[in-house]
Amino acid sequence: MDLSDIRREYTQGGLRRKDLLLDPIEQFNFWLEQAINAGLADPTAMTVATVDEHGQPFQRIVLLKNIDQQGLVFYTNLASRKAQHIEHNHRVSLHFPWHPLERQVHITGVAEKLTAFENMKYFTSRPKESQLAALASKQSSRISARGVLEGKYLELKQKFAKGEIPVPKFWGGYRIKPQSIEFWQGGEHRLHDRFLYSKSDQQWQIERLAP
């Protein structure tokens, strides 16, 4: 197999300045709604990129759980590797790959922790199985076998069979306050369309980028 020969043409149409909404959050919500309506698998899945204290970048996929004018929200174990990176460097990057629509969205911003009330409100809305999994897993820590994790899960399931599951102190969310948002639409002959929203003096500026 020659990987250099793997390519396809992007034919679903371009993106023009006149098509864009003035507010990038509204534009993102419009594209997200289209991704959901198109039946894409995991349309809220996003790559979160962080950097450790040595300057080594890391990426992983999480699910977007809310978006408004304040930012984009996801939840995680606050002792996880990504949380440790954010503690050291609050600047992160997000990426949404909506390949079937030939679209991508890239976001840069600053992460801030959610309040205890916000964490509790979301945690209690989750299925009980998800609550137990969050409590059972010390995310990013080394374990000897999967059975250790499954055993802890079953232990907690029995313990809280008839009671409410407390919000773990080591679990919570982050809000990414965007500083730039780029919308990418595939174009024919690799002449893709890219538009970058950048924040300056609380106002969003829009620029076209070369593909």
How does the SSE layout of this entry go?
Layout: H1 24-37, E1 45-51, E2 57-63, E3 66-68, E4 71-77, H2 81-88, E5 91-98, E6 103-113, H3 116-123, H4 128-136, H5 146-159, E7 171-185, E8 193-200, E9 203-209
Antiparallel strand pairs: 1-2, 1-5, 3-4, 4-7, 5-6, 6-7, 7-8, 8-9
Helix pairs in contact: 4-5
Tell me what the structure shows.
Catalyzes the oxidation of either pyridoxine 5'-phosphate (PNP) or pyridoxamine 5'-phosphate (PMP) into pyridoxal 5'-phosphate (PLP). Its EC number is 1.4.3.5. Pathway: Cofactor metabolism; pyridoxal 5'-phosphate salvage; pyridoxal 5'-phosphate from pyridoxamine 5'-phosphate: step 1/1; Cofactor metabolism; pyridoxal 5'-phosphate salvage; pyridoxal 5'-phosphate from pyridoxine 5'-phosphate: step 1/1. This is Pyridoxine/pyridoxamine 5'-phosphate oxidase. Helix content is 25%, strand content 35%. The protein is of the alpha+beta class. A hairpin with a 4-residue loop joins β5 and β6.
